[in-house]
Specification:
The protein has about 110 residues and is α+β, with helices and mostly antiparallel strands. It has 5 helices and 3 strands, in the order E-H-H-H-E-E-H-H. About 55% of the residues lie in helices and about 15% in strands.
């Protein structure tokens, strides 16, 4: 039997961030966007947390699959053209780029 895909609750998003950070830690796009600044893992977590927040603020699902031990083993973020984010997401975005820096923002926006 295939593992079940479930919609994660807001309380489960930190676990989703952990899974996504592990999956994308060495992804060349993330390395490019975040650059060589110190504290790469923390910067990656901040970026991935924002990606998850964007989905949840628009009411879009964060999906997960659990392993045999019940821990999250896989995560997917879903986007829809119909989702509308509240003003708190724009504030979160500005805090993120203030933390990550103008260079990281420019590399991200260029993609």
């Amino acid at each position: 039997m295939s593992p079940a895909v479930e919609r994660l609750t807001a309380d489960e998003v930190p676990g989703a961030v952990d899974v996504l950070c592990e999956a994308f830690r060495d992804y060349p796009v993330m390395r490019h966007v975040l650059g060589d600044a110190p504290a790469y893992d923390e910067r990656l977590a901040a970026l991935v947390t924002f990606f998850c927040a964007a989905r949840t603020s628009r009411g879009e699902p964060v999906l997960g699959v659990r392993g045999d031990d019940g821990a999250l083993a896989a995560v997917a973020l879903v986007s829809s053209e119909r989702g509308v984010a509240g003003p708190e997401l724009a504030e979160h975005r500005e805090r993120l780029w203030a933390e990550l820096g103008a260079d990281a923002r420019a590399r991200y926006e260029a993609l």
